[in-house]
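Re: folding output
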Amino acid sequence: MAGGYVGRLLRVDLSTGLVREEALPGEDVLRRYIGCAGLGVKIISEETPKDIGPLDAANPLVFMTGPLTGTPVPGGNNCCVVTMNAETGFTMGTAHTHGHFGPQLKYAGFDGIVVQGVSPKPVYLWLHDGRVEIRDAGKLWGKDTHETEDAVKAEVGQPRASVACIGPAGENMLGGACVENEKHHVAAAGGVGAVMGSKKLKAVAAYGRGAVPVARPKELLDIAAAWRPAAAAARDNTPARITQRWAYFGDIGVLAAKNLLSPALGKEIGRNYAAACRSYIKIVPKPCLTCPIACSYKATVTAGPRQGFVATMGGGGENMEGSAAMVAVTEPADIVWLTDLYDRMGMNAASVGSAVALAFECYERGLITREDTDGLELRWGNAEAAAALVKKVVAREGFGRVLAQGTKKAAQAIGGDAPKYAVHMKGAGFNLHDWRGRYAKVLEQTVAGAGPRHESMAPDGFSPTPSKIEGAAEAVAKTQRSKLFKDCVGVCMFMWAGGASVATETRALAAVTGWESLTEDEMLAVGSRVANMQRMFNMAHGLTIADDLDISPRMQEPPPEGPAKGHTIAPYLRDAVMEYYRHMGWDPDTGRPLPQTLARLGLEGLATQLP
């Protein structure tokens, strides 16, 4: 077995309770798919039957690590969760989580887990030092993610175990449900929590005293030593920088606020939050394993009505934008309170938060009334009403049942002009910032093969000024292959976004595995292979060009103010999607990968998936 892998894949059939281990494939296959998203997408592509839905028992759920997961490289802690997307309903669904879960999975003796079937009762998996137990989770069902983690650790008697679990949102199979671990980290995209809930799998706990084998340890340590300061310098996440970044988002007009109606309010919210974190919100960074930047943090409110409240915040800003800014909540203490609620419920704020924001706007415009909302006063900025509505959505109770369908379907159910106000792509949430003036970033999200998410590294995402359409499609296609390769190796994207090129990760991969003659071109082909496998899977399950153009009207409106005022991708969208197809080697009229493209990547067999 090559270094970097422990060599064991665990298969669990929850319908029968049968557990078996199998060896990972040989070097020829591993070099073509690497791990994490690559191996996960390969398994899902090969083992998902046609004509099923994401919540069907036959839909497999994969947890997969990469060869750099659990090694000393910066941010070597990635674990990828792959399945059919429960939010779009038909595409691939891929989500990444960090912290310690991926490394502990490997230290426990497994590179990955494939979960199949449906348990007749709630259960959780306990993986420890090469052993596997399926344990009863009846007493855990209904608990939030924090309560679940604490209860599982107490029951297994190992406080250092890492617990990846779902909350009530996953149990009730909301499309935007997440898988959360260590209270700060979340696999948010793809509705993976809903799939886990459909299988009655409450949690996976892992702990081990094993180690990841490394072929050339000194070489790997030298690479890690050179990489670490570059990553830290590029994304210094001191408490000051954590808050300054949110202020920056507001200043450049990408902080999503008031259902995208007011970039000016987004600027105000960003600056308010930064100021509060210098005064009455105490920030304590919480780094993942081998992380030099610590984007996750504990936020403690030290004054005001919520004094003493403690939130376990994840990295990025999408969680705070979706839970609070999108409903025009401006008070920083309320922002962390609402964000923590979403985390505890185990749901993607970008998805469920967009549905809640839709309801607030429809209320303001008179499309719904207090009679419809079970008496809730959905006025902009009403944090208490937002929290109450979130709980109704999670429980699928009253008006919450409407929003639990997802933003697009909820807008259709409300009727009237509601679809004009919905914020979604392919009916799903995306990496929620107000991207409307950044054309490559909008395109990146809508054509992503695993549902709307960061699947390329569009260069205009956080540019201080709006972008142009020229070159956007080429940039998305070119950076997609490098991003998807990096999604396979087991490293957090913030590490390579701040200091690691494809060349750096290729050298690290060679050092850990011992593989000879690895080249950047070979590794970029891995990313292209993943992109094409996702595309073929999606088309086999019903994706059409119309789906790649399914960006809600609100996302195609020009912002009414701010740096991106007047900018919209709407006039360019169709042509940009077709140009992206051409750069990917796909038929521009159908979006189908061309035979020569599949042949170049060794994927000729996938051609039989489509008529």
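--- second protein (sequence, then structure) ---
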Amino acid sequence: MLPQYTIALVGNPNSGKSSLFNVLTGLNQKVGNFPGVTVDKKTGVSKISESLSAQIIDLPGTYSLYPKSADEQVTYEVLLNQKSADRPDLIIVIADASNLKRNLLFCSQIIDLKIPVVISLTMMDIARQKGITIDIDALQRQMGVPVIPINPRRNKGIAQLKKAIIDTSQNKPTAIPDFIDLQSITGPWLNEVKDLCGFNSNYAALHIACNYSELRHINAAQRIRIAALLGEARFQKSKVQADEIMLRYKRINAIMNQCTVADSPMKKMVISEQIDKLLLHPLWGNLILLVVLFLLFQSIFWLARYPMDWIEHGFAMLGNWLNGLLPPSLLTDLLVNGVIAGISGIAVFVPQIMILFGMITILEDSGYMARISFLTDRIMRSAGLNGRSVMPLISGMACAVPAIMAARTIQSRKERLITIMITPLMSCSARLPVYTILIALVIPNKMFLGIFNLQGLVLMGLYLLGFFMALVVAKVMNYLIKTTERTFFLMELPVYRAPRWKNVGITMIEKGKIFIRDVGKVILVLALLLWGLATFGPPARMHAVEEEYAALAKQHPENRVEIEHRHATAKLENSFAGMLGHAIEPAIRPLGYDWKIGIALVTSFAAREVFVGTMATLYSVGDTEAGKATLREKMAEARRPDGTPVYTLATGLSLLIFYVFAMQCMSTLAVVKRETRSWKYPAIQFTYMFAIAYLSALLVYVAFK
């Protein structure tokens, strides 16, 4: 049962709110959704003292109490709805000390809601670097609430913050004067709105007046009366809001003069600003970005090569050992060629998945990921979007599902929809096992120009190809979807910091576990299903195969090994799996694919990674030669009926291009439906991506055949 005492964390984006949430809650966290919306709800339990534990709610970041996105609307609803189940008993406002003036605007708005408040000042070290000195005691007197400097990354100030929470929870709330005189810019009608809705806050009443038609907790009778009051007063929403902001900044300026001392504007730039002169340069910044991406993809092959080889040969040895230990039977075949073969096909790629997530975490933790948004803003605008769409697209390199959910922060409905529709074109971690196995098969492992690994260059090219196709599709959709709405990209750049290596390590381990656990379940179920489909078939057809090859074995005993191999292949072709593959083979033959690849295309719709597990199972069931120990060796030796290799350069490149563009993920389609609240958009998305994938794969196969 959750604690009765509820604490909400609010603050501007990049203020350190998530770090404080992690420190307070530790591992006692869970993610759900706010009632009635798709926005994530991060909650956790924190033990404040021996006698007080609290539910901590991490509300989406916002710059003010004037919401412009779905995330900000959630924060707005929770703080203004007195009947909300998430209504906090205490609000902790996280404020960036290095940008104190802007952060105090939001702090003053929260204070005027008349909910107990504690202000936590973060980034004090950055403020000192900027030459800003803050008088904490004076600031606390001026704001009328506790002000606690903290550094969640180093666990500093947390004990003092908990003490302030305890004191606030135990003391009877005292009346705090309004930060500004709202009556001077409104009128007596504000009191009636306040009484009508049962508020004790003038500022909450003003927000009800501004947004009564949109707030879900305002009933019809209240809406009618509020509309009448505002009509009589000739209320002008935009004028009152502008006057409010001006009044707040007037007082904030006075507070800043009394509580802060700043060095001369001619002071030396802080390190972050000096670095940005290079990394955000129109020319050098983009070249450095390409180098960073190049190193990322090179490292995926370079660093993961040895653990991948160990895992691959380890599973091969395990399979051979079990084959020698267990007696020949259907159960042994199921264990070795079904379960172990399927799981080994995915386990071998865990090192690459961990490295990819580790690299992304380093980019995020260091502050460089936000710079990528600014660098790519110009190219995004050429496609009708802006830099705010870059973060979901970059997140799509890890997984399209959370990346699509991250598009909620985009204010424009049109830009949000386009971002959702193109995000699956970004190559996610699920494609990585497919890319790796196919690149290893058809691209030689040699150096280009003496320093570049050719396989790494091809991998980087596939990721860039997905990104540029996303821009092309966005341009087309921007032309088709008409709107007069204009948006601007404003984003605060976080300071550069050394990555928290412990955090990087934990992320890599957790993502590896999730990959094994979540994908492993799907792989195991499908591996068992595929083994059954590949082992059994229509009795009449299977009986005919047995009779044919039994007769051949008697007639040509000297060719026993070759006949056994042909027998296993014939059984696989006449099994239920073989029948399915042959049924769809005419549609995929123009792309250079055989019936086994066709089966993998169908099963990998559940998840792209299943392609490798499927191939592992199919080639294990049909293989009788112990020398081919690994999946790559088996696929390299695969032959068509005419004796030509299955995986030629043309076929391999065609498959790579198909998986770059195809929507092979049920989970992504489900989350698109959830975010757009319609099956129309997932249907359009699946159709256009499949069409691009098929046509592109066909062109590549014809070109390289």
